[in-house]
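ingest -> validate -> predict -> emit
validate: passed (alphabet ok, no gaps, 213 aa)
predict: started
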Amino acid sequence: MAAENFKEIFARNLNYYMKKNNIKQIDLVNRFNVSKSTVSGWCNGIKIPRMDKIELLSELFGISKSALIEAKVPNNVTLINDEKLIAVPVIKQVTLDKNCFSEDNIAEYKYISADDITADQKYVFLRVKGDNMYPNLMENDLVLVRCQEYANSGAIVVAVTDSEGWVVKKIVSGNNFIELHSINPMYPVRRFENDDMTRVHIFGTVCRVIREF
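emit:
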């Protein structure tokens, strides 16, 4: 998504909560010790504050960070320049409990076209760590993950194991085994058979890669 769209969404949400709480631009200038031009840029969709400032703003308004960043329409879908967009969280760590989707585990949000995802399914972005999937995936690449507990053999998945934590791998599976393959030949295949298959949990499948320079 273009940076301008993100700024527009943030500005619209910021102005809404400022009006709701009877807070003026000068109040933000004084509270956060920033310039008038900085706050004006936030309110007019010219600038976007850092995540620490977004967190302070959310505390001021008594709302979550996502309330400032997400599009405020049903299903998180908004229409900007004739394009339907949806906010997807970039999570810091993969866990198998509800904390995975908590505000504390969300680094930021990225916006993508609503037409590029399947309705009624949960998606997250993750930043790739390590080089086990090089050259297809590089460290710090963003991968869009469709959250689901199953995957077809041959898919690129985010898996959680009891020894490695979360990893991005190619899964090869059969009736009584699961293998996690790296693309980088320097890394061996990890094979789990029979009862050991319970040591592997599928978090989701990778459906897009974004490389930021």
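The beta strands are 77-80, 83-91, 106-113, 123-127, 142-147, 156-161, 165-174, 177-181, 190-193, 200-210.
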